[in-house]
Design goal:
about 190 residues; alpha+beta; three-stranded antiparallel β-sheet; globular; binds FE2/S2 (inorganic) cluster
Length: about 190
């Protein structure tokens, strides 16, 4: 669904607005493929240039009905990249097989998802070390040693629940506030 990266550009630190231009290109491609909401949200943000207080209150709405098991999409929430993944049963089992208390930032998959929607993982696409955009959301990208996300800047590996498992990042990828109603995901 999304484009493949892994080039040197992937090592760029997120820009002033926290999102690489490359990600906007990927987001546009995803929108064209039929995941609703993105087409409306980004042009609105970019053309109207809302003030900081308006931006802080904004939400991002996505139709995740077409998001198949094992797929992920990149979107934008308050000018930051956000990753939405529908986990496979194997990815959920891998996350649940870990003793959460043994982790650097102890959280279970259930802690990081919503009841009844444990297969939908929503995280900010911002590495908690120094803010790079991790790889792993787009098809073919490096997911790291634990099958989730990999930050190429300094080598942080996140697992299938986007929890930090190896490398310098101090905490798990942040889970933003969100709600899921039927097939609609509203972040913020
Ligand atoms: S910014 Fe991700 S590992 Fe340093």
């Amino acid at each position: 669904m999304a484009t493949t990266t892994g080039t040197p550009e992937a090592n760029e630190v997120a820009g002033e607005d926290g999102v690489r231009r490359r990600d906007f290109i990927e987001i546009a491609a995803v929108s064209a493929a039929g995941v609703g909401g993105l087409v409306m949200v980004y042009p609105l943000v970019s053309q109207m240039a809302p003030s900081a207080d308006v931006l802080a209150e904004s939400t991002t709405e996505l139709d995740i009905g077409a998001l198949e098991t094992g797929q992920a999409v990149k979107a934008v929430f308050r000018k930051q990249p956000v990753f939405v993944r529908r986990l496979t049963p194997a990815e959920m089992q891998a996350a649940d097989a870990v003793d959460a208390e043994s982790l650097r930032d102890p959280q279970t998959l259930a802690d990081r998802t919503q009841e009844g929607h444990e297969d939908v993982l929503v995280v900010m696409g911002v590495c908690t070390h120094l803010g790079c955009v991790p790889l792993g959301a787009a098809e073919g990208e490096n997911k790291g040693e634990y099958g989730g996300y990999f930050c190429p800047c300094h080598g942080s590996h996140y697992d299938t629940a986007a929890r930090i498992r190896k490398g310098p990042a101090p905490t798990n990828l942040e889970v933003p506030e969100y709600t899921i109603t039927d097939t609609t995901l509203v972040i913020g």
